[in-house]
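Re: phosphoric acid mono(formamide)ester structure - here you go.
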Amino acid sequence: MTNPTTTAGNGAATGAKSDHEVAQVASQENVALPPRKHLLDLDDLTAAEITDLLDSAEGMLEIIGRDVRKTPALRGKTIITMFFENSTRTRVSFEQAGKILGADVINVTASASSVSKGESLLNTVKTLQAMQIDALVVRHPHSGAPYFISNHTDASVVNAGDGTHAHPTQSLLDLFTVRSHVGDLTGKKIAIVGDVLYSRVARSNIIAFQKMGAEVTVSCPNTLIPDEWQLDSTLGSETGFGGLKLARNVDEAIDSTDVVMALRIQQERQDAGHLPSLREYSDRWGINAQRMALANDGALLMHPGPMNEGVEISSEVAHGAQSVVEEQVRNGVAVRMAVLYTLCAPGKSTRLAGGGDEAQAQA
Ligand code: CP
C-alpha cells in the first residue's frame, strides 16, 4: 500500500516534522496539537483529534435536523470541490455541508474544466488559488495528489479520496455511524470484506478503527492483499497495521463481530486477473443473510457505496434491518460539516492564524 505521507506530507520538503511524526510525539507526550490546516489522511490524526471531530459532527447532525438548515458559521468563505473522478456521495455531501454552514461552494469537475484542454494540476491549483479560495476539496485518481496540492495553495485541502491511498472523511463518517450505535469502539470487532489491496476506504478504515481501539479483521482473496501479507495471520507492528487479522475464510472473519463492512469489488479487478469471476467472488466472499447470521445479534452491516448488489452484497441484506448504508450517507454530511468548520471557521484555521506548518513543526 502506498503512503504518500512518507514522501509528500507537510514538512517533507522543508525537513520539518511530518504531521504523522508530530501526531505521534503529541500522542506519546499527551500534549495538545495545534489546529490543522489540511485533512489529508487519518494516520496523521490522534485518537483525541478524531474524537473531537466526531463530537463536532454530533452538533452538526442537530443542525441538519432543524427545519431551517442554515448557519452563518462559514459565511464569506469560498469552498471549491474539485473532482477528477466520479462521485455521488462525497461530492454532494461536501457541497451540502458547505452550503448549510453558509459558505459559497463551487463545484469543478475535470471534464468540464480546463483540465480537459491539457492544463496541468499545478496550473489548475494556481488558477484557483488566485481567486482567494478558503478550502479545496479534492478527489483524484492518483495517490498523493492532495498532498501535492497542499504544497501549492494557501487554502485548506481536504482529501476526498486519492487513488488507492486514503478516503479520510469516509472513515470519519464510518466511525461516527458505528459510534452512534455501539458507543466506545474499544474492543469492538469489525470485519472488512473485499478489495484490501486497491481500496482507499479499506486502508483508511483499518487505520481509523484500529486507532479508536477496535479489533479489525479483513477477508478477501489472496490476490487482493499486498504481496508481503499472508492470509490466516496477524500483522506485526512493523507493517503499520499491527494487530490486523487476515482471514482466508470469510465466515471466520464475520463470526461474533459487531460490524460487517462490505467493500465494492471493481470490475477492473476481474479484468486484471485478480478474481476468477464475480460469481465465484460472490459465492466465497459476498455478504448475505446466512453470513450476517454468524455476526453478533444486532451487528451492523455497512458499505461505503456505490454497491454492486449481487456481487459483494446481496440485495436482501443491503436493504435489510441491519443495514446502516443510508445512515452512513446522512452522517457523511454532518461529518463533512465538522471537517470544513474545523479547518475553515474564523480563528480555527492555522492559515488564518498564520503559519500552519511552522506551528506543527514546533509541537
Ligand atoms: N463512498 C464514496 O466515496 O462514494 P462516492 O464515490 O459516490 O463519493
